[in-house]
Specification:
With 225 residues, this protein is an alpha+beta fold. The chain folds into 2 domains: 172 residues, BirA Bifunctional Protein, domain 2 (2-Layer Sandwich), CATH 3.30.930.10; 45 residues, SH3 type barrels. It contains 4 helices and 12 strands. It has a 7-stranded mixed β-sheet with strand order 1-2-3-7-6-5-4, with helices on both faces. Strands 11-10-9-8-12 form a 5-stranded antiparallel β-sheet, with no helix packed on it.
């Protein structure tokens, strides 16, 4: 379902799933009045960019979903717009060393089932409020934006298939723009070197002379941009 304006595509998508009339839902909008990002951050959502959410019902949760989604979306941007996108752990979309998009995965447990919503925001053209924000420097009409969303959805709808994107780790690491670089781990502000990701999507870093693993629910990183 496409809207001109919504509070948040994730919010509407989750509401549709909770009605229990649909096993999967796709919501898109020209703008969001209350877009959400990771860690309770707001997502600045000007009109003319790309905002959509894909929701589905799952028996269990996987930390791989945000990273697999990042690979799918970055590949789609490359194939559709011919623009090479890099990734920042766990799921920021990066172009010319600036964040041009993000992915927010939210879930609700209902009677042993999980309502999972994958939200995607991509800045085509943006008046940046923060120095690390950027855009793809594109202006396209609503018809083309919807065409791109359908293009991504055709791939993303397979995310629950067991063999989907079996090489996701290698592909994610190849796109990571801070591999083997020093980062700052928050909230403790510890310096570490980003080494790789494991099979669960956790980052592996060199910290205080040893290898450590962290999930995205435990920490976030800075100094990558």
């Amino acid at each position: 379902v496409h809207f001109h304006s919504v509070t948040s595509t994730n919010e509407i998508c989750l509401e549709k799933l909770e009605e229990k009339k649909y096993s999967s839902v796709l919501i898109s909008s020209n703008l969001q009045t209350n877009g959400r990002g990771r860690n309770q951050n707001k997502w600045h959502s000007e009109e003319g960019n790309i905002y959509f959410s894909f929701g589905f019902i799952k028996d269990d949760l996987s930390e791989k979903i945000p990273l697999k989604t990042a690979v799918v979306v970055s590949d789609a941007i490359q194939d559709f717009f011919d623009i090479d996108i890099q990734l920042k752990w766990p799921n920021d979309l990066v172009y010319k060393n600036k964040k041009i998009g993000g992915i927010l995965v939210e879930s609700v447990n209902s009677d042993g089932k999980f309502f999972v919503v994958i939200g995607v925001g991509i800045n085509l053209r943006l008046d940046a409020l923060e120095p690390h924000w950027g855009d793809l420097n594109l202006t396209i009409n609503e018809k083309e934006r919807l065409k791109f969303i359908k293009f991504v959805f055709k791939r993303l709808s397979k995310i629950n298939e067991g063999n989907f994107l079996s090489d996701w780790r290698e592909r994610w690491e190849k796109k990571c723009f801070h591999m083997n670089q020093e980062i700052l781990i928050l909230p403790d502000e510890k310096k570490a070197v980003f080494l790789c990701i494991d099979t669960s999507g956790r980052m592996i870093v060199q910290l205080d002379g040893e290898k450590r693993a962290f999930s995205s629910s435990e920490v976030k990183i800075r100094n990558a941009y």
